[in-house]
Design a protein that fits this description.
84% of the residues lie in helices and 0% in strands. It contains four helices and no strands. The chain has helices at residues 2-31, 39-60, 68-93, 101-146. α1 (2-31) packs across α2 (39-60), α1 (2-31) runs antiparallel to α4 (101-146) and α3 (68-93) packs across α4. It starts with a helix and ends with a helix. The model has no long low-confidence stretch (mean pLDDT 83).
Length: 147
């Protein structure tokens, strides 16, 4: 249980940070650096990160082994799910103009960038964990061989 809480906090923090960074760049490019945002924006980002993390944990961080097909399907589902969350939250909070197709396309690209960054960071974390485990196994084998 403790591991799931750590993963939840890690993924939530990573998601919220990436959303803040990428959306800040998007807002600066689209509306200029003098554009002011409200507290609703902050709550919207936190809600988006929370809802994304709630689904991410059972899909990818449960420890259950998935086949290549299942992993592809899970990643595709998660990407569509995150897009739906962003578009729904954006609609409720008035983040973008739905009559402008370029804005919707830009938001979809932004979600893709955030998704790719998050997946890359998770991959790096998993690689580091695997490397630590391999090092521990090597140490244990070396210790056993010495005795």
């Amino acid at each position: 249980m403790n591991t799931i809480i750590k993963k939840f906090i890690s993924y939530f923090s990573m998601g919220a940070t990436l959303i803040f960074i990428c959306s800040s760049i998007f807002i600066a490019v689209s509306f200029g650096t003098n554009f002011h945002i409200s507290l609703r924006y902050v709550w919207g980002v936190l809600l988006t990160a929370l809802l994304s993390t709630i689904v991410y944990i059972p899909l990818f961080a449960s420890g259950k082994e998935l086949s290549k097909y299942q992993m592809f399907a899970a990643r595709l589902f998660y990407y569509v799910y995150v897009n739906a969350i962003v578009i729904t939250t954006g609609w409720f909070l008035g983040w973008f103009d739905f009559s402008n197709n370029k804005t919707i396309f830009a938001v979809a690209i932004l979600v893709l960038v955030i998704y790719a960054a998050e997946e890359s960071l998770c991959y790096i974390q998993d690689q580091q964990t695997a490397q630590k485990l391999n090092n521990q196994i090597k140490k244990r084998r070396h210790t056993e061989a010495s005795n």
